[in-house]
Amino acid sequence: MADFSDLITGYRRFRSTGWTQQRERWSKLAEGQSPKVMVIACSDSRVDPSQIFDTSPGEMFVVRNIANLVPPFELGGGRHGVSAALEFAVTQLEVPEIIVMGHGSCGGVHAALSRRFEHAPPGAGGFIAHWIDLLDEARDRIAAEMGDGPDAIHALELETVKVSIANLRTFPCIPEREEAGRLRIHGAYFAIADGVLHLLDEQSGNFSPA
């Protein structure tokens, strides 16, 4: 596993090879960005959207957080990091597509299902608890039906994508662009164990291999 010195070594490789080989591209990117896709993914170190989708710099506008969650539209209170990024991507960059990508072995989902941080103070899990409580309704429903075993964890991992998509549509800028045909939303799930990407069919609610 890489530590900081390994990252600096990697940077030097990039600077002497990747950056040099694509210098013209980097020069254009220095003038601005115009990605066609926004990706909302988990912060998990094993789930890198640029690697999974094999993209180059400038092609995706990426937001990553615990359990790839989007909060509902709301005013006041707290910080709105995801909301601000979403607003920037949709209203300023005018991306025509958004992908919400969940994944297997998600620690945030496991914490939500087990309620591991439920009574923890901020700084010792409390911030995590308050973030993943966005999954409370889905968690309670799945736990009542399936318990808290591997099948329930997998079901809740898939549900994070549906919850986030539903919350996306509470932002006024989203449905108005969908209705005008200017924006499409996709749900995806990456299975770390076998490297297979699954896509959500919103009509059926099912995920199938891409």
Textual characterization of the structure:
The protein has about 210 residues and is α/β, with parallel strands linked by helices. The chain folds into two domains: about 1-30, no CATH class; about 35-210, 3-Layer(aba) Sandwich (Beta-carbonic Anhydrase, Chain A), CATH 3.40.1050.10. About 45% of the residues lie in helices and about 20% in strands. The chain has helices spanning about 5-15, 20, 25-30, 50, 80-90, 105-115, 125-130, 135-145, 150-170, 175-180, and strands spanning about 35-40, 60-65, 95-105, 185-190, 195-200, 205-210. It has a six-stranded mixed beta sheet, with helices on one face. Strand 4 (about 185-190) and strand 5 (about 195-200) form a beta hairpin. The longest helix has 19 residues, at about 150-170. It is globular, with a radius of gyration of 18 Å. The mean pLDDT is about 95. This is Carbonic anhydrase. Keywords: Lyase, Metal-binding, Zinc. Its EC number is 4.2.1.1.
